[in-house]
């Protein structure tokens, strides 16, 4: 029986190869002529593949040679020369050399890494999918990825975006926030329930879409994520995926003191094996060097009426009413008041309820501005709400959403009582003059929150700045109104 099956597969394979051999090939001169005269392939959607698939591997090399002169390091220097960035930070320049090295290696390995979406190697890789079901094989990339980590505000995200934007747009690449990536993974797993190894199927789908995967703000604080990351990325790396990631944490510190961390440790080893680890250090937090002249951050909860007044000014003549926002897997999020791209929430409704990143992403897809009333000082008593608030800020920052809020203190004061274990140990020991009654019993000792604290303070500060609000306005002008106003206003939103 086994011999008959192998023989049958061999005949199918031979016929497929015979069919491929008979396919007409394009003349190389014609291809090069088309490349010189074609419109940028980035302006085409995936549905217009007829012309795009005519681009050969030689054409991809031509494109890369053009892009190579615009590498990340060159583009960084150009932005400094025109005043878009400050004079080069030595730490950033050192990181840029690593990024430029990766950029050059990828450019020299387009064929080996199957990077080009429309090249013959990509077609061969897709045709091998059927055979891999019978005869699994590994095709680990010859190029190692890059894991950048460092403190808040050191420019990690900016450097990743600089690298990503310089890559040819015909490559199989994706840039996504880690929160969003994991939500996508869980959604795919839900669709493939009942399969013997759904993680292998999900990894196959992801690697088919994107060989170069750029994940921003890599952090693990969820046990469900921690338990699947090792197997997921083993499949991804075996499929040739190249990972570029930014994080506030060194690999060895990921998911520190998390539940069942022993099951997560193999992922750290895999990460170190498949990525070059580079620390980016700087004494400057560039997010805090913005001007906060036009912010919407109001201290003291007594300003609730003022917040509602500003909310009404933003929605204009539109009528605010309760809404429902669709999130993932058929779930909906109740919005107390929403109109004209703006949503209003009391803090308790958004951060004291069992909500997560999926709900906040759904909110940001339907509303570009959030009015949040009554953000409290965080401590041990509302530690869970602090986790949700940190996630909310991350999601809003990633989506360039505008935050208007009333709060019990400055961004630093909100999170002052959140400390890491190391910070807690540095507190002066109790003496006869310092008794237990003087302790702060609301002090929250939590490593994950403690490390996220600085990032959240930094982001809240930047989101309150003139520069960030200008970026928000540009995003609203270009993305929010891509579709007709009424159609966009009702997208993913239903009346309660």
TrEMBL record:
Keywords of this entry: ATP-binding, Nucleotide-binding
Would you tell me the protein name for this molecule?
AFG1-like ATPase
The terms describing its cellular component in GO are: chloroplast; mitochondrion
Q: Which organism is it from?
A: Deinandra increscens subsp. villosa
Q: Which GO terms describe its molecular function?
A: ATP binding; ATP hydrolysis activity
Query: Pfam families, alphabetically?
Result: AFG1_ATPase
What domain of life? Eukaryota
Q: Which residues cross the membrane?
A: none
Family to which this protein belongs: Belongs to the AFG1 ATPase family.
Asked if the keyword ATP-binding belongs to this entry, the reply reads yes
**What SUPFAM superfamilies does the record tag this protein with?**
P-loop containing nucleoside triphosphate hydrolases (SSF52540)
């Amino acid at each position: 029986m086994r011999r008959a099956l192998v023989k049958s597969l061999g005949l199918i394979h031979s016929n497929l190869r015979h069919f491929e051999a008979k396919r007409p090939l394009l003349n190389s001169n014609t291809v090069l002529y088309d490349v010189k005269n074609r419109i940028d392939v980035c302006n085409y959607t995936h549905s217009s593949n007829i012309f795009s698939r005519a681009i050969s591997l030689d054409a991809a090399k031509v494109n890369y040679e053009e892009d190579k002169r615009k590498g990340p390091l060159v583009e960084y220097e150009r932005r400094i020369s025109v005043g878009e960035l400050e004079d080069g930070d030595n730490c950033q320049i050192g990181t840029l050399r690593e990024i430029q090295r990766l950029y050059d290696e990828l450019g020299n390995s387009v064929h080996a890494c199957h990077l080009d979406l429309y090249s013959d190697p990509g077609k061969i890789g897709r045709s091998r999918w059927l055979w891999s079901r019978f005869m699994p094989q590994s095709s680990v990339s010859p190029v190692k990825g890059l894991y950048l980590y460092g403190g808040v505000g050191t420019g990690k995200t900016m450097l990743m975006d600089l690298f990503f934007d310089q890559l040819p747009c015909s490559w199989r690449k994706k840039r996504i926030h880690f929160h969003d990536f994991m939500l996508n993974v869980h959604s795919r797993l839900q669709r493939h329930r009942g399969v013997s190894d759904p993680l292998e199927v999900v990894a196959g789908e992801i690697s088919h879409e994107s060989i170069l995967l750029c994940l921003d703000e890599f952090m693990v604080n969820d046990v469900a994520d921690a338990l699947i990351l090792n197997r997921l990325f083993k499949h991804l790396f075996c499929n040739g995926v190249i990972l570029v990631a930014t994080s506030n944490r060194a690999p060895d510190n990921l998911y520190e003191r998390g539940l069942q961390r022993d099951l997560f440790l193999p992922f750290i080893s895999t990460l170190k094996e498949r990525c070059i680890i580079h620390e980016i250090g700087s004494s400057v937090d560039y997010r805090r060097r913005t001007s906060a002249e036009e912010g919407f951050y109001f201290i003291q909860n007594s300003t609730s009426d003022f917040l509602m007044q500003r909310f009404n000014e933003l929605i204009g003549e539109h009528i605010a009413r309760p809404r429902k926002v669709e999130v993932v897997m058929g779930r909906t999020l109740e919005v107390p008041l929403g109109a004209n791209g703006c949503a209003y929430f009391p803090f308790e409704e958004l951060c004291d309820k069992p909500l997560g990143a999926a709900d906040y992403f759904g909110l940001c897809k339907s509303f570009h501005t959030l009015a949040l009333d009554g953000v409290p000082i965080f401590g041990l008593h509302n530690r869970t709400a602090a986790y949700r608030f940190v996630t909310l800020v991350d999601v809003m920052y990633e989506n360039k959403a505008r935050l208007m809020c009333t709060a019990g203190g400055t961004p630093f004061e909100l999170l002052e009582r959140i400390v890491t274990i190391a910070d807690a140990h540095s507190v002066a020991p109790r003496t006869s003059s310092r008794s237990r009654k003087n302790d702060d019993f609301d002090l929250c000792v939590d490593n994950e929150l403690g490390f996220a604290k600085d990032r959240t303070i930094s982001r809240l500060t930047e989101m309150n700045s003139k520069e960030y609000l200008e970026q928000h306005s540009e995003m609203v002008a270009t993305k929010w109104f891509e579709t007709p106003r009424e159609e966009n206003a009702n997208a993913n939103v239903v009346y309660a």
